[in-house]
Amino acid sequence: MAAAAAAAAAKPNLLLPVSVAIPSSRVSLPTGLVCSARSPPPRLRAAAAAAAASQALTSPVAAETPEAKQMRVETEAALEWGGVCARLAGFASTAAGRAACGEGRVPVGRSREESERLLEQTAAAALLPAPLDFGGVEDVSAAIAAAAGARLLAVREICGVGRSIRAARRVFDQLKTLSEETPDGRSYTPLLDIMQDCDFLTELVQRIEFCLDYTLSVVLDRASDKLATIRKERRKNIDMLESLLRDTSTKIFQGGGIDSPVVTKRRSRMCVGVKASHKHLVPGGIVLSSSGSGATYFMEPRDAIRLNNMEVKLSGDERAEELAILGLLTSSIADSEMKIRHLMGKILELDLACARGSYALWINAVRPAFTDRDSDTQLNPNSECSVFIEGIQHPLLLEQSLSMVKESTRVGKGQLSDEHLVSPMPIPLDMQVRNDTRIIVISGPNTGGKTATMKTLGLASLMSKAGMFFPAKGTPRLPWFDQVLADIGDHQVVSVF
Fold first, then answer.
1. What's the CATH code of the domain at 260?
2. In terms of residue numbers, what domain contains 48?
3. d(CA 17, CA 484)
4. Where is 125: in which H helix or E strand?
5. In terms of CB atoms within 10 Å, which of 88, 170, 248, 486 comes out highest?
């Protein structure tokens, strides 16, 4: 496999293996930096060889080997890819989207075609007239796993599943309406395509909504005829019991047996309060408990025993029927596990696409294009360069500056305090790497921009593979790299907050 590498005279080294040859180069850098040819260090040569062997033995979308995964993780850490993902989290609308970005699980294209598809989605999302409403979409992965594992779901969990599926349908309907009402509705096709093969499980959602109250998180009477009958009998029994106890408590109060009528519950049974010295006012009653001082007894009148027994029985019957209904709903969710996971995965994909679009608008980014080794130089005079990027700025440094500018506008009209000085914008870089160049060495003084330059190109490569736009001029062009490997020896962090 051919490879392109940027290496510093001292510690920083960067290797970018790519499936196309990267032949001579010109990089516009801050004054004092010099480009020259040099062999890559042994560690990166070994990494490139391992990556090439892995690519030769496996398909482009095959699972990573442990060695390849370790090198990828090290590269992402060196290039501060997690910082870019963390910024993207601020534009995600769902809990799952924010979690994926915060944990660095932003999908990166495993093939050029997949990266092109991600870029198309980002371009479509950037055209949305307003953000899509993902309200109601919850992270239900734990509930789905529990249902599949034969654990009975609680009412709240089942309601969350129903709300999320219903909300997913609303998001799709929003996109479909935009596509139909916008003159150039085909612009949103890449986003619609994400949801096209989804099953919105209408029957399951209707069943959940029929049985459960989303607001109160309770099982409704109409969930089953048996439950409706039990609750009707229980309400009638409670009315009779409460009426009896109110009458009894009033008589006790009138007889001086209590300072004010008291009807309460002790040991899951309804009872009345009476002074210990006046318990004779409740003949045949049962003492269920007493106050802390022992001065008041809580007694169950004799006539209330049968009604209390009926209440305990009906309460148990009601709970058993509720559990049976929840069991049926849990079973239905478990049966639809794969469809629900697929739907929620697509919603996550759509949320990340919209987040990429919003992030691109925030940093005024442009869409990159992947170069082709067989491109026609007559049609494109810049096709002799596999990397052709003008005015690129490090995205983390740029966003830091934009955030500080936004914050500074709150201080006053035209006047900034010393504590809110605007951070200077990062220096734009022009990068041109000819097709016949294999190695680039950047040398120059300390703090001259060598590390920031290499990290900028490395991040641009990762961002383009992940379908993200980056801040540059025109239409930046670079190869779709099979592997991006970086070994930054001084462990600089270019984004400082």
1. 1.10.1420.10
2. 3-109+367-487
3. 6
4. helix 112-126
5. 486
| CA atoms of 40 and 8, how far apart (whole Å) | 10
Same domain for 475 and 384: yes
What is the C-alpha separation between 172 and 183, in angstroms, rounded?
19
User: Residue 122 domain-assigned?
Assistant: no
Whole-model pTM over 0.90 = no
Within 10 Å of residue 270's Cβ, how many Cβ atoms? 21
The secondary structure of 138-155 as a DSSP string is: ---HHHHHHHHTTPPPPH
Which phi and psi angles does 127 have, rounded to 5°?
-90, -5
> What is the helix (H) or strand (E) element at residue 85, kind and residue range?
helix 81-89
**How distant, in Å, are the alpha carbons of 78, 80, 370, 399 from that of 462?**
12, 11, 12, 17
Same domain, 384 and 301: no
Domain boundary among 311, 327, 352: 311
Angle, vertex CA 367, rays to CA 366 and CA 370, nearest 5: 140
Residue type, 290: S
Torsion of CA 402, 395, 100, 82, to 10 degrees: -120
CA distance 453 to 438: 18
Give the phi and the psi of residue 97 in degrees, each rounded to 5: -65, -45
- The residue to which tokens 């907050």 are assigned: 497
- 10 Å Cβ neighbour count for 101? 24
Across the 497 residues of the chain, what is the mean pLDDT of every consecutive 10-residue run? 34 37 42 43 48 41 76 88 93 95 92 96 95 94 96 97 97 93 85 94 97 95 97 97 96 94 94 94 94 94 96 96 97 97 97 96 94 55 79 84 55 46 71 85 80 88 95 92 80 50
With respect to residue 170, please indicate whether it lies within any of the assigned structural domains. no
pLDDT of amino acid 50 = 46
Whether the Cβ atoms of residue 24 and residue 388 lie closer than 8 Å to each other: no
One domain for residues 296 and 404: no
HSE of 352, CA atoms in CB hemisphere, 13 A: 26
CA-nearest of 262, 328, 326 to 295 is 262
pLDDT computed for residue 485 by the predictor = 87
Phi-psi region of 474 (alpha: psi -120 to 50; beta: other; left: phi over 0): left
Both tokens of residue 183? 């003159």
CB neighbour burial string for 115-148, b if at least 16 within 10 angstroms, e if fewer = bbbbbbbbbbbbebeeebebebbbbbeebbebbb
Q: Which residues have C-beta within 8 Å of that of residue 102, sequence separation ≥ 6?
A: 85, 86, 89
Maximal C-alpha separation, the chain:
110
Q: How many domains does the chain have?
A: 2
DSSP at 260: S
H and E: helices and strands count for the chain: 14, 16
Measure the N-to-C terminal CA separation of the chain; round to a whole number of Å.
39
Which residue, of 311, 345, 376, is where some domain finishes? 311
Are 287 and 371 contained in the same domain? no
